[in-house]
Amino acid sequence: MSDRFRTLLKKVGSGTHTSAALTREEAAEALRMMLQQEATPVQVGAFLIAHRIRRPTGEELAGMLDVYAELGPHLTNAVRPPMILTHPYDGRSRTVPMTILTGLILSATGVPTILHGGDRMPTKEGICLHEIWQQLGINWEGISLIRMQEIFQTTDLGFIHLPTHFPLAMNLVGPRREIGKRPPIATLELMWSPYLGDATIACGYVHPPTESMFRTALELRNQRQFITVKGLEGSCDLPRDRTCIIGINRPSIDNPETSTFERLLLHPHDYGYGGKEVPLNSLDELINNIKAVLEGEPGELMQAAIWNGGFYLWCAGVCADIETGLKHAQELLTQGMVAQKLEAIANSL
């Protein structure tokens, strides 16, 4: 048992009236001790559930991100700042995920793009990105970080697979399953950038207070370029059945050392892309639908792919406005260039 960790646990787990938030340094110390198994399984489980009940602060999440930056894997040397598309590690269960198609659209235009995640994860145990990649003919498992760096530089797309590239993080999967609730680490994963250098991070969320935590944590880490999306099931996928609530943080034009945050409300119907969300019924059906989109077939999933792809092409600076981005995304999909990108990635493994 770690006496030092017990002190940190007591601080966050002392109850409604006496518990207190950790400092950035203390939060970093606590996560480091959990990842490196200096805290016992009982201590880890107690900390995760106590921290969830108390709710993390942006400062605590900044400290935890410091540890992921210190101990986690990194890709680097992109030709331009990449787009980091984040996705809840415990997957999807209700709506079809668009993140992979969005990543392929971006990389097909030369925008370096990084996704990350693991295998099926508690508590939702939903369909994960790695599983979808596998069914599309790309298995990231076992590919070394050095080889992944080469693939990233060759294809403009990289995938950080937790079991392969960040085994320390896997030490917390068991406790996550046993406590039965998402811990604050799940929020941390939605704003983690496994890239060494400037990048744009697209962070999805469900509950509005989460966005505030994102902003505080990322600003403390001097991350000036990020996007927040009240997306589908906590992902950065834009909905089509409601107004998209988006925040865009950019370096200030007058002073790049500071940044500005802009609220953007996008109405899909205004652009001709409103509609019902595509339900997630089974993995087999999902893969068949994605393949149909890659072959240029029209339908609801094609509309969703264009809507997401067009928005992120605009965010990445490929297109001057969203309308142009939507048109470009449609061309990339219907003319087979996104399918060609998937094939190029498969051939590079």
TrEMBL record:
Keywords: Glycosyltransferase, Transferase
Membrane-spanning segments: none
The keyword Transmembrane is annotated on this UniProt entry: no
InterPro entries: Anthranilate_Pribosyl_Tfrase, Glycosyl_Trfase_fam3_N_dom, Glycosyl_Trfase_fam3_N_dom_sf, Nuc_phospho_transferase
Pfam families the record matches: Glycos_trans_3N
Superkingdom field: Bacteria
UniProt GO MF annotations: anthranilate phosphoribosyltransferase activity
Record-annotated Glycosyl transferase family 3 N-terminal domain positions: 7-71
GO BP terms, alphabetized: L-tryptophan biosynthetic process
Keyword Glycosyltransferase among UniProt keywords: yes
Record's GO cellular component terms: cytosol
Protein name per its UniProtKB record: Glycosyl transferase, family 3
Source organism of this protein record: Limnospira indica PCC 8005
